[in-house]
Give the backbone structure.
Amino acid sequence: MKTLASYDAIPYESIPITETHVDGLAALGRLFGVSTADPRRCRVLELGCAEGGNLLPMAFYLPDSEFVGIDLSARQVADGRRLVAELALGNITLLHRDVMDGADDLGRFDYIIAHGLYSWVPAPVRERLLALCATNLAPDGIAYLSWNALPGWHTRAIMRDMLRHHTREASDARVRLDMAYLFLEEYGAALAAEAGDLAPILETEVEYLKQAPPSYLYHEYLTETNEPMLFSDFMTQARGHGLRYVADVDLHTLLPETLGQAAGQVAAEIDEREARIQAMDFMRARRFHRSLLTHAATPVYDVPDLAVLRTLAFHADLSSDAEIDLRSPAAQPFVTATGSRYAVKHPLAKAAAMWLTARYPGGVAYTELYQAAAGIVATHGDAALATEEDALAGELLDLLAWGGVRVALDATPRANEPPARPRTHTLARAQLKHGGDCVASVRHTAVHLDEAGAHLLGLLDGQRDLDALVTAMRARLDPSLDPASIRDGCERLLWTFARNGLLETS
Ligand SMILES: C[S@@+](CC[C@H](N)C(=O)[O-])C[C@H]1O[C@@H](n2cnc3c(N)ncnc32)[C@H](O)[C@@H]1O
């Protein structure tokens, strides 16, 4: 049986890739004028799906949509199928197949996802992948392709060259991985001392790789094929297959105004869109793209349409330690649960951030968000600013461009407090049982659990209250630990679980 031995030996950590969620892809496509399919009733194909860790949570939460995953590694597909069977999901199929064999028998798809595939396969497979997108994408479909970009990847390639050279004699994947980690340990300090101008870059690289998951280190730095390219070359290939660029999911990379003044001015003077993006890639020394494509025949706007933005829904988890100033447009820092910081200025945007956070992981439609924010500003801030709706739309777009808020079609409210006797959600329970330390949140983020977190999540059977959970955790943890700190830790984790939608709500 044909398989991909390297991924059978070192399976890829298969987790939700937030930016590939079809609800977000649908909304982004619409912002650029594509009439994307309703994510609740669509067909989705993922190429190089590994164990299905990205596709499966979408299939779980969107039962009326259909999901097909293709991967050449027999082991990963078999592992993924076990979880699909355990959850008895009838709307997802994982196929052990080579992209080279195409998907003519699978019909058209509204969304095609290929994350971590395009740069990591040889040129003929890249061609086939684009041809498959052109053939199998529905007329208003969106294809998401991530790929390593130049010029930024040149700096990463220095470390890759060294690691590949250092491990070249070994054939066993695990041995090569061990050698690579040893190299990072042993050479790290020397590189810092001896590498001259390159020392800061190499030091950062070494630290980055020491923290990276082993499967990433192996398949990015030790694997044979990893071919970063320029945006213009990527687009030449895509156009050759009748595909057109829609946007990148990292919207700020399309907008000259997100660069410093000098660079922004140079970029803004370049009329042709793709040439402008290429120039901005140079200025940012960009190393990664997450590009959305559609058919060449589908018209696409150059910039996001603010009128469409006003028809969409938003979700965000942004908090601020400071007292929120609703009287002036002074910038205030807001921080996501993962520590990313955003400066929010207009009182309406600050009030919107508070409103979204109070509802997270639920979504809020723009019209409701504006009404709520205007009500808060009128009551607790400068009422004259409450009517500046344009400012809210503009700042939301800015936050969206930088990843501070996410856009969606789904505005469903969701519970976000732990009940008295919490019960773990079916999907999270199955993922825990499957042996991972990562479960999927309802917002398609990867929730990594340490041992205590995984144990607590496993204990939530709907029978135990907080006292019973603390007693059970004390029995599991070091008995000399202060009971009050165990209680605090349990409470904090239960809130985290609730805000990630990991608990049953009825
Ligand atoms: C870097 S991993 C990315 C996995 C997953 N998409 C993710 O990002 O988490 C690449 C995946 O593509 C699969 N793959 C590589 N070449 C393939 C081919 N020709 N046909 C199908 N799958 C392939 C590998 O088995 C592997 O699971």
